[in-house]
Design brief:
Blueprint: H1 2-7, H2 12-30, H3 35-52, H4 54-80, H5 85-99, H6 108-129, H7 138-146, E1 148-149, E2 152-153, H8 162-167, H9 172-200, H10 209-229, H11 234-257, H12 264-280, H13 286-298, H14 304-315, E3 318-320, E4 326-328, H15 330-334, H16 345-353, H17 360-365, H18 375-380
Antiparallel strand pairs: 1-2, 3-4
Length: 422
Amino acid sequence: MDTIASLFSFITTPVSWVIVQFHTVYGALFGPDTGWAWGLSIVSLVILIRICLIPLFVKQIKATRAMQTLQPEMKKIQERYKNDKQRQSEEMMKLYKESGTNPLSSCLPILAQSPFFFALYHVLNGIASGHTIGVINESLLASARKAHIFGAPLAAKFKDGSDTIHALGASVTDVRVVTVIMIVLMSASQFYTQRQLMTKNVDTTVKTPFMQQQKMLMYVFPIMFAVFGINFPVGVLVYWLTTNVWTMGQQMYVIHNNPTPGSKAQAAYLERLTKHVTHHGKVSRRSEKTIVKAIVAKGRDRNEFERKFINALTKAGLTAQSDGTVVKSTVQAAAQTEDGAPVDTATAAARRQQPKRQTKAQRQSGPKQAGEPTSLEKSDEPQDAKPAAAKQPQKPGSGTRSKAQSGQRKGGPQRPKSPSKK
């Protein structure tokens, strides 16, 4: 660990300078030699770093969702070229290039904060060994060695011997109790963060190897933190616990306000959005408009939760527009009474489709007496048909025999009948 930390020594001076600046502020409030002043300086360093990494975190979310979308295509490539690893890699890179995704984008926040993490480890390790480092001079070094958090020095480790811990002015029991509690909290926060991602913010309609990998990481990461945590100084444990809590809260915010399509979090979000829109009749926030716009653009490709959302708006007499806004539908506008009171859409539509009821006399006399010929009569009547009064009635017993059957020609001069034999 010391070798890795020394590789990031180029950033040790900036990290130590930031800690000293925060220590100057908190030292004036709590005292320069207290654990609160040095502990809060480390916490403030974490918050400052994570605020700077927010753009990378947003990029990580987009990359993760893009990778989830590509999982079916990636699985097809793996099955098609399972015996040709080189062709499989080429097709994977081609797929990434066409979709504009990068698998390493999801690791950007962790990779970006790694130099700060190892630089802080290098600073605290120098404090534990009694060496000045960065901008931490002799007076600041003596102050940091006196700082304790719940009885444990900032530079103490779980595996330190009694001589080292006594030199820092603490007891072995206090150091090990504090470090074990911090390691447990650090591992638990990491496990909950990963579990929250798997149970709430993953598309359950697509079963891919990516989900299995995430599920495996849910158990691997906490074990890694527990194993490596016994080698971390208390100050580094404070740093890592703070960044885990920040990540957990940041992820909760994203899941609550911008969930993954097809996940349980999206179902809960659209249910809340439906209640809000049907109550107020509009979409208020910009993020909500963005989500509604994306749902409308999907068309028939909407998932179950998105179709349920659109149907709920329709039942409420509202229509989602392509720009993300929600307006009152034309059916609802036409179904209002004269005084402006709204009428139920389904009832109004049923009333418009119901035909006008006829009297008994009109039904007996038929549509001609009522002045409205039926559509069947209109379609069956030829254009050159003669008036009904000019039609000759058929003789009884003639049946349905046509003129051609009775020996008469259909048009022109008629053939004379042969004389009957008496």
